[in-house]
Write a structure and sequence with these properties.
By secondary structure, the chain is an alpha/beta fold. It has helices spanning 12-24, 35-44, 61-69, 85-94, 106-121, 155-166, 174-182, 192-204; strands spanning 4-8, 28-32, 49-53, 76-81, 98-102, 129-132, 135-138, 143-146, 149-151, 172-173, 214-217, 221-224. A 5-stranded parallel sheet has the order 2-1-3-4-5, sandwiched between helices. Strands 6-7-8-9 form a 4-stranded antiparallel sheet, covered by helices on one side.
C-alpha cells in the first residue's frame, strides 16, 4: 500500500507497537508525541492519513483536529479512552472519520485504517454528478455544492451523502451506511452514523423539520427525500 501515516500519540510504547504492525503492512510511518508538533507536521508535510490520540500534551487531540480540519480533508482515525462516549462523539462532530477506543488491538487499528483509505482512495468505475434539490454532488471530484456554495465535508460525511443522494427515496440502514461510509461493520450502540448525519444536516442547512432533506427512518436508518 505504501501509504504515509502520521501517528500523533504520547504513548511511546503503544506507538512503537503500532509502527511494528503498520510497517509489516507496508505503511510508511511518522510519529510525534505532542499536539503542537503534530499539527505543525500535519500541515507542512503530505500524509495519506492521521492516527490521533485525544489525550496529548501541549494541544489535545480535539484542538489538533480542529486545526487540521481548517486546512485539510485528510482521513483522521481518533484514539479515545475506552468507554468514553463523549470523546468519541466530540471527535466525530469535529470531523474525525472514525474512532477506536484505547487500549486498542493493533490488528483492528490496521483494519480500520485500511478501510478508511479504501473509501478515500478508491476510484469508482462510474463517477456521476448528482443534482437533487439545490444540492450538487460531484462524485468524481468529491465536491458538494449547496445553492452554488462549496461545502467542506469530511470523507465520511461525503460518503454518506453520496450514498443517500444516489438513491433518493430509498431508506438505508445504519449497517449499510456504516459499511459504505466508514468501511467497517456496524456494532450495537455505535452512534458514529448518527453524529455524521447530524453534522451533514447542519452543513447542508437541513434544519426544517417539516421539509427534511435527510429523513430519519425510525428504528432503521436514514433516507434522502426526493
Amino acid at each position: 500500500m505504501n501509504s504515509h501515516v502520521l501517528i500523533i500519540d504520547d504513548d511511546v510504547e503503544l506507538t512503537e507497537l503500532l509502527v511494528e504492525y503498520l510497517e509489516q503492512e507496508r505503511f510508511k510511518i511518522t510519529c510525534v508525541h505532542d499536539g503542537e508538533t503534530g499539527i505543525k507536521r500535519a500541515l507542512n508535510q503530505p500524509f495519506d492519513a492521521i492516527i490521533l490520540d485525544v489525550m496529548l500534551p501541549k494541544l489535545n487531540g480535539f484542538e489538533v483536529l480542529r486545526g487540521i480540519r481548517e486546512h485539510l480533508n485528510i482521513p483522521v482515525l481518533m484514539l479515545t479512552a475506552r468507554g468514553d462516549d463523549i470523546d468519541r462523539i466530540v471527535g466525530l462532530e469535529i470531523g474525525a472519520d472514525d474512532y477506536l477506543p484505547k487500549p486498542c488491538n493493533p490488528r483492528e487499528l490496521v483494519a480500520r485504517l485500511k478501510a478508511i483509505l479504501r473509501r478515500t482512495q478508491k476510484t469508482p468505475v462510474h463517477k456521476p454528478t448528482i443534482e437533487c434539490h439545490d444540492i450538487v454532488v460531484d462524485c468524481s471530484k468529491r465536491i458538494v455544492l449547496v445553492a452554488g456554495q462549496s461545502l467542506e465535508l469530511t470523507n465520511a460525511e461525503f460518503n454518506i451523502l453520496e450514498m443517500l443522494v444516489k438513491s433518493p427515496g430509498q431508506a438505508f440502514s445504519k449497517e449499510e451506511l456504516t459499511e459504505y461510509a466508514l468501511g467497517r461493520k456496524y456494532t450495537a450502540y455505535d452512534r458514529s452514523i448518527d453524529v455524521h448525519i447530524s453534522n451533514l444536516r447542519n452543513k447542508i442547512g437541513d434544519n426544517n423539520p417539516d421539509k427534511e432533506l435527510i429523513k430519519t427512518v425510525r428504528g432503521f436508518g436514514y433516507m434522502f427525500n426526493a
